[in-house]
Amino acid sequence: MIPTDTHDTGTCQRISELLSRIGDKWTLLIVRALGQGPKRFSALKRELGSISQKMLTRTLRNLERDGFVSRTVTPVTPPQVEYALTPMGLDLFCPIAALAEWTFAHADAIDAARHAYDARHPDAGYRPA
Amino acid sequence: MIPTDTHDTGTCQRISELLSRIGDKWTLLIVRALGQGPKRFSALKRELGSISQKMLTRTLRNLERDGFVSRTVTPVTPPQVEYALTPMGLDLFCPIAALAEWTFAHADAIDAARHAYDARHPDAGYRPA
DNA sequence: CAGGATCCGCGATGATACTG
DNA sequence: CAGTATCATCGCGGATCCTG
């Protein structure tokens, strides 16, 4: 049973909001890259490979706005911008790491559940109606 | 510093996938409702209020496929379908609860970071370019 | 180098109508 | 009651071109 009193609707939506941000296509990969230390824009882009410049910029902006990543501009030519995790950004990844471990530990069970479900519902290969 | 070796790109994407599911608009609210005990389709719909039938159905299907929720049909007229958390579904919400607590504890800091950012960037009220 | 501006496809979500 | 089917909308993410 899950304690409802500590999870009112408003709090729940707030958590959903954070999870949506963290769960988007690039955030985790970017944070993981920055977890190794501060990096410049093009270094991140190179490391992530397939990310578009737009999404890298947008994702970094969102992380910066929420206070998870810092952005340091050195005014020279050519420009130089370094991104780094803030203490809060680093701190967030304790609970995230716990979730990651859970995911890793249960990946097989989830796969099994999916295959079982798909076997029970042969009608038209899985499409999230 | 975040340990990179336990977070290769593939694992990271897998975690992102789970976070996306959990972080979508309705999943957490539905799971929270089911955390109080098994419930029928319309009971869930009534409790969530603003959700559409389509999204309730789809979200429940996804949760069922991943093995987090069970679906029990009693063949009578009118039909009767009960949804409940599986043991794995309940188990998942240990790490989720940890994340929830973190979010709750840092909500103010995040708000402050956002306001500070928006103040630093007055140009055209915030839009995630 | 580090973006900003623009156009586009697609999937998520929602609203409405219908059914066993 | 518990869905399915259809149509419309909206934002994500990608691709491309341009600039200080």
UniProtKB/TrEMBL annotation, chains A, B:
Residues 12-111 form the HTH hxlR-type domain. Coiled coil: none annotated. CDD domains: HTH_ARSR. PROSITE patterns: HTH_HXLR. GO terms for biological process: regulation of DNA-templated transcription. The keyword Transcription applies. One of its GO terms (molecular function) is DNA binding. Keywords: DNA-binding, Transcription, Transcription regulation. Signal peptide: none annotated. This is Transcriptional regulator, HxlR family.
